[in-house]
Amino acid sequence: MANKLIVAPAPHVQTSQSTARIMRDVVIALMPALVVSTVVFGADVLRVTALSVAACVAFEYLIQKFMVRGAVTVTNWSAVVTGVLLGFNLPASIPWWIVVMGAFVAIAVAKMTFGGLGKNPFNPALVGRVFLLIAYPVQMTTFPLPVNGTFDALSGATPLAAVKQGIVTPGTVGAQELLLGNMPGSLGEVAALALLCGFVYLLWRRVITWHIPVTVLVTMAVFAFVAALCSGQSEAALWQLPLFHVLAGGAILGAVFMATDYSTSPMTVKGGVIFAVGIGAITMCIRLWGAYPEGMSFAILIMNACVPLINKYVKPKRFGVK
Questions:
Q1: Exposed, middle or buried by CB within 10 Å (0-12, 13-18, 19+), for 139?
Q2: Rounded to whole angstroms, how far apart are CA atoms 33 and 47?
Q3: Cβ partners under 8 Å of residue 130, min gap 6
Q4: Residue 204, C-beta contacts closer than 8 angstroms, at least 6 positions apart
Q5: The pLDDT value given to residue 198
Q6: Helix, strand, coil: what percent of the chain each, to 5?
Q7: Which of 297, 289, 262 is nearest to 25 (CA)?
Q8: If DSSP states are collapsed to H, E and C, what string results for 127-194?
Q9: Taking the model in full, what pTM does it have?
C-alpha cells in the first residue's frame, strides 16, 4: 500500500482558525445582553451596534488592503468583537457620525497603528470609547429613557451618575433593577444578568478563565465595603454599596469582556490577578472620588499600560531552574 502524504495546516492558518473561533464565542456571549438592551431601548440598539460593527470591519479591511498591503484578516472576527464592544459602550441615541468616528479611532489608531491583532497594547474598543467621552461628553452622557418605563428616581441619569450627584442612594436602586436593567445607561450597562450569562458561556467554552473577572469584581466589592466602613455608613449600606458597584455601570462588561483581552492582559495567572486588582482599585477610586461617575474604561487602559511591567516581573520559572 502506498504511503499517504499527510499535509498539516500551516501554523498561521491554525492560529487564524483558533482566533476566529474565540472571537465568534465572544460575540455569541454578548448576544443575550444585546437582546435585553434592544428590549429596553428599542431598535436604536441594533442601529448603533450594526453601524459600529460595519464601520470597524470596513476600516480594518481598507487599511489592510490599501495601506498595510498585507493579508486581510477581517475574517478572524476581531473587528466584529471590537465593533460590538464599542457599541455596548455608547448610548442608544448617539448620532451615527460619532459611532463611525469612534470606530475609526478604535481600529485605525488603537489597533492597526501597532500592527493589528495581538500587537495592540490597549483595548481598541475602550480607546474609542474614551476618545468619544473626552471629545463629545454631552452626546456620550445623554441617555434615552427605556421604552417600557424606567426607575423614576433616576430622572434620566444612569444609576452611577444619580448616586454621584446625590439624587439617590445606592440602596434606592435595588439588585433586581440592576440585574434586569430597565433604566438609563449605555447598551452594555443595563443587562447585568445577561452579561453574567455570557460570562458563564465563555467559561464553559474555555475562552477565558475566572481569575481576572472575579478578582476585578471582588476587589471592587471589598474596596466599596472598606470605604463605607471608614465613612461611618449604616450597617445596611455596608452591604448595599459593594453590591451596587459590582452590578452598576460597566463593571461586569469591563471585567468579563475587556479586561480578559488576550492581547492586552498579562500572560500568567499571578500577573492577571495583579492586573485585575489594579483595575478594581482604580475603578473605585474614580467612582468614589473622581470627576466621572464611571471609571472602568480608564482603569483598564491604565492597567493595559502596566502589562509589560507585570509580565517582566511576574514570570513562570523555567523548567529545571530552582
A1: middle
A2: 15
A3: 297, 298, 301
A4: none
A5: 96
A6: 65, 0, 35
A7: 262
A8: HHHHHHHHHCHHHHCCCCCCCCCCCHHHCCCCHHHHHHCCCCCCCCCCHHHHHHCCCCCCCCCCCHHH
A9: 0.89
- Model confidence over 95-115: pLDDT tens digits? 999 999 999 999 999 999 988
To 10 degrees, the CA torsion angle through 129, 133, 135, 139? 110
CA distance 265 to 303: 8
pLDDT digits (tens, 9 = 90+) for 62-96: 998 888 876 777 888 999 999 999 999 999 999 99
- In order, the DSSP letters of 267-306 are SSHHHHHHHHHHHHHHHHHHHHHSSSS--HHHHHHHHHHH
Range 138-143 contact pairs with CB under 8 angstroms and sequence separation of 24 or more: 139/91, 139/94, 139/95, 139/98, 140/90, 140/91, 140/94, 140/98, 141/91, 142/91, 142/93, 143/91, 143/92, 143/93, 143/184, 143/185, 143/186
Helix axes 44-63, 11-41, angle to 10 degrees: 160
Spatial distance between the Cα atoms of 263 and 53, rounded to a whole number of angstroms: 20
198 close to 25: Cβ distance less than 8 angstroms: no
Q: Model confidence over 111-160: pLDDT tens digits?
A: 999 888 888 999 999 999 999 999 999 999 888 878 765 555 555 578 78
Please name the amino acid found at residue 299.
Answer: A
Q: 103 near 59, Cβ under 8 Å?
A: yes
